[in-house]
Amino acid sequence: MGPANWLIEEFMLLANKRVAGWVSDRKPTAPPFVYRIHDLPDPEKIQQLRVLAKSFGHNLKTDGRPEDLPKEINKLMRAVKGTEEENILKQVTIRSMSKAIYSTENIGHYGLGFEDYTHFTSPIRRYPDLLVHRAMAHYLADGKPLDKNTLELSCAHSSAMEKRAADAERASIKFKQAEYMLTRVGQTFAGIVSGLTGWGMYVEIIANKCEGMINLRDLPGDHYKFDQESYTVTGQRTGRRFRLGDEMEVMVRGVDMEKRVIDLSISDGGVVEAPSSGSERGRWDETRPSPQAAATVHAKVSEAPKAPMLKKESTRAVSSRGRSGVRAVSRQLFAPSGSPPRDPDETGAKSIIDPSWNWSEITRELEHFREYW
Fold first, then answer.
1. Which of 131, 210, 236, 262 has its CB 3.0 to 4.6 Å from that of 177, i.e. a possible disulfide?
2. How many other C-beta atoms are found inside a 10 Å radius of the C-beta of residue 13?
């Protein structure tokens, strides 16, 4: 974050803080209002963080007052800056924090260290901010206290929708990552361990930021288990350990589009072989030609003589007919080897295929329409 961005963020935090404070300080009692609150972290997770930090030789004091914990955490973050364990301790610290929500009960914002905080600065994109603007206008006009139960219902709904939107965003990212890696089954990439669980090890591919999982039972040469205290995956016989931030070379074994999961395995620099054609991993979805069909197309393209590009009037014809015309072309392009091309007129679509055209150019046109839609 640059200085300008940092300055804007500071002004936004200050505005949110001042608005919340203006309402909470009203006399004789603060009227009902929408606050952005952040509770204390989970004690069990903080204890796990303390044990993990101790395993690296760092001390995190957790036996003092709750309000002293942020200072201790900041002290720990300064101590690990630039060290090998910085990445793992930062991630575990973030995961130990509670989730911020909207509420009419003002308990303060633990993460920011504010006694009063709300969301005021973005009414055009967040409904809670709009609630805050309306309530503030109402109180500036000397209106009576708003109904607390009604506001609390709006707060609960906003918090639920915020979580739902975040889940949808993560799901969409996972889906597009899986779709992207679908055509890269069998390839190897440099990756970094981004997550550890009792069932698998998550690895983020450095080149494209796609995240896949290596099942613990698929790790070669040993039986591996996840150690919660040390936050490592360790081989029971060899003692080989994996930690957050470890770099490794992985192979894409397959992609499950329904579950949006990328299946990885450790390459170890050996010979990489893709799964057999009969494997359920790495299945092509219905919107893509199969690898066999694609190979047939490439073979036909290499044998075909050079020819003019797809005519503009034909492009317009495809556009006017929409998907039906493109599907007709696709059936001819990806027809099984040895079988005669199907006549698009059988499906009611007028034929636009000319034997003299270069198939590679037609394929490019089809990709253009796929991107357009």
1. 210
2. 15
| DSSP string covering 213-262 | EEEGGGSTTS-EEEETTTTEEEETTT--EE-TT-EEEEEEEEEETTTTEE
| Three-class DSSP category at 285 | coil
Stretches in the chain below the pLDDT threshold 50:
270-290, 293-294, 297, 300-301, 304, 306-360, 362-373
Q: Name all domains of the chain by residue range, CATH numbers in brackets.
A: 9-172 (no CATH), 185-266 (2.40.50.140), 291-372 (no CATH)
Give CA separation, 218 vs 244, 263, 289, in Å: 18, 10, 30
Give one DSSP letter per residue of 123-135, joined into a string: TTT-HHHHHHHHH
Q: What are phi and psi of 78, to 5 degrees?
A: -70, -35
**How many CA atoms, within 13 angstroms, populate the side-chain half-sphere of residue 96?**
21
From the centroid of its chain, how far is CA 355? 45
Q: State the virtual CA torsion across 109, 110, 115, 121 in degrees, nearest 10.
A: -30
Residue-level length of the chain:
373
| Of 15, 7, 5, 10, residue with least CA distance to 117 | 15
DSSP 65: -
Closest CA to 191 of 251, 272, 254, 243: 251
pLDDT digits (tens, 9 = 90+) for 89-129: 888 888 888 899 999 999 999 888 899 999 999 999 999 99
Strands lying side by side in the sheet with 232-235: 224-227, 232-235, 241-242
Amino acid identity, residue 79? A
